Amino acid sequence: MANMFAQLARKATSLSPLMEGREKLATQEVIEKYPDGITIINFDVVSTPDNTGNIKTYPIIQFAEDDTKFIYGGKALMDVINVWLAHMDGDIETTVAALKADGGVKVILSQQRTRNGNNFTKVDVVG
Predict the structure, then answer these.
(1) What's the order of all strands across the beta sheet hosting 23-24?
(2) Which of 3, 51, 74, 127 shows the smallest number of beta carbons within 10 Å?
């Protein structure tokens, strides 16, 4: 039997059920490994304090191309998810169910620079 306390500790330190049993990929790894894009099939939204104490909200994305992995989304993916949620009255479970029923949404991620020289992950919706 697996160690119950270890299982409970893993669950307590996970921000989302989507992270449990999955490996986190960095955005750059996704860009390199999946140049034709990934298909978003599930998401969650989490909030954590940043170094200054401000609350940062971002998505956790599960994708069809590798069910054993997940990514943290940045501003552009959060914008996409906010639009989806607004369309579904803010209900994550209903939105995810509809997303899965539609077969997900394929996106291609790429690294861009803002006018100020900051890194930005661009999201191109391709299907």
Answers:
(1) 23-24, 69-72, 55-63, 38-49, 105-113, 119-125
(2) 51
